[in-house]
Specification:
Structural class: mainly alpha
Helix content: over 70%
Order of helices and strands: HHHHHHH
Number of domains: 2
Shape: elongated
Largest sheet: none
């Protein structure tokens, strides 16, 4: 039930994101400042349009379609919508930075932005540092407590087998015998 509430929260946040994003671009469009309009046109119909429209799809269309439909609002649907939003948020950061760098306000030539080897190295180092830190943290503080799994294994196997016998169809006499055995334990 908590996943359903989180899905509803994600739907509300997706709608709020759409409203604020629309308001931001509407303000830019009505301002009609030449430097901002170049960036605006780059995003909507220029070389960065595929990234922009994929961002709109991932942050608005995908969550709204999945989370407003009761048949699709399952744990898997919520997971798909969440992954879409994460990808869309990454694309939004790309859309905020890259077209602005490609269209400077100062009198420099415009062009397509291509990350340098240094920038790629910094991104790879940051990702590697996160993975290393996460692995080190999970080594020092295990994600699943070891003593709980070793201690409860025998009890849980017996309990699961009893539940399976109880749920599976069988003769009423067998179930009564099993229930009496369970009561003795």
């Amino acid at each position: 039930i908590h996943f359903k509430y989180l899905g509803t929260l994600l739907l509300v946040v997706a709608l709020l994101w759409t409203y604020f994003t629309f308001a931001e671009y509407l303000t830019t469009f009505y301002g009609h400042e030449p430097a901002e309009m170049r960036v605006f046109l780059y995003k909507f119909g220029g070389p960065y349009a595929p990234f922009f429209w994929l961002m709109v799809f991932c942050n608005f269309l995908l969550p709204v379609v999945i989370l407003s439909n009761k048949k699709l609002k399952t744990i898997t649907g919520i997971l798909v919508a969440s992954i879409g939003v994460v990808i869309g948020m990454w694309l939004e950061r790309l859309i905020i930075i890259i077209p602005t760098l490609a269209n400077p306000r100062l009198p420099y030539p415009t062009g397509m932005y291509v990350p340098s080897v240094t920038e790629i190295g910094i991104a790879a180092a940051a990702t590697s540092a996160f993975v290393l830190g996460f692995m080190g943290f999970s080594k020092l503080f295990p994600l699943i407590s070891i003593w709980e799994t070793k201690e409860g294994r025998e009890h849980s196997v017996h309990e699961v087998s009893m539940r399976l016998r109880e749920y599976l169809p069988g003769q009423p006499e067998e179930k009564q015998v099993e229930a009496s055995l369970k009561a003795e334990i």
